Amino acid sequence: MFYLSRAEQVALVAILALLLTGAGVLSYARGQHSADTGRSEPIFVPAPEGVGGEIVVDVSGAVAQPGVYRLNGGALVSDAVERAGGPAPEADLTALNLAARLDDGDKLVVPTRSDSPQSAEKGPSPSAFARRISLNQATAEELESLPGIGPVYAQRIVAYREKKLREGGRGFQSADELLNVPGIGPKRFAAVRDLVTP
Question: How confident is residue 65, by pLDDT bands cut at 50, 70 and 90?
Fold first, then answer.
């Protein structure tokens, strides 16, 4: 039979307590690390475009029944106009791309014919846009169609987007990030804020 003295028993208990404490600290640290990793590396699963599901679109302007409508995923501008009771007699449908696909949360403003001459003098107005321009997908030429955004600013937006993609794997997360693009201040941003989406 193996016997331990009182001092040896105390030493053995102290060693076991240290080992258990160390194992607990290590386990806690591993749990924190995996939790931190989970927060910093979220997994995004994009919804399939145009397949099932519903989108919600705000239709206003020269339509018979302005309002917020639920449409099938992949719906076109023409579908939204028809769902809103069709165009009003004064509607100028030539200012819209009726074949453009709508996204969830889009605002569609159908302009009137009387809007067109004024917008030609002042540049594009929000009513001239059937849907917002995606900052993550637009070409430099598409960005130049925005008010106050010429070739120089369009190239800066594209450069900012590419830098974000290289560094973080993602482009624009919010339209507000346009304020981070050199030369785009609050006034220029205010002119395009309602015309763009990430």
Answer: very high
DSSP letter string over 91-131?
Answer: B-GGGS-TTPBP-TT-EEEEPBTTHHHHHHHH---GGG-SS
Q: Are 58 and 68 in contact (CB under 8 A)?
A: yes
For residue 45, give the 3-state DSSP assignment.
coil
In terms of Cα–Cα distance, which of 74, 63, 123 is closest to 100?
Answer: 74
Q: Kindly state whether residue 2 falls inside one of the protein's structural domains.
A: no
C-alpha to C-alpha distance for 106 and 122, rounded to whole angstroms: 24
Give the max Cα distance, the chain: 106
Residues 115 and 145 in one domain: no
The one-letter amino acid code at 57 reads V
- pTM exceeds cut of 0.90: no
Residues 6+ apart with CB under 8 A from 131: 77, 100, 101, 102, 103, 106, 108
Helices within 3-150 (DSSP H only): 6-40, 77-83, 115-122, 140-144
| pLDDT tens digits along 39-48 | 544 444 454 4
Quote the pLDDT of residue 32.
64
- For the chain, the domain total comes to 2
Domain CATH code at residue 171: 1.10.150.320
Phi-psi region of 166 (alpha: psi -120 to 50; beta: other; left: phi over 0): alpha
- Determine contact, residues 57/80, Cβ cutoff 8 Å: yes
Distance CA 48, CA 168 (A): 23
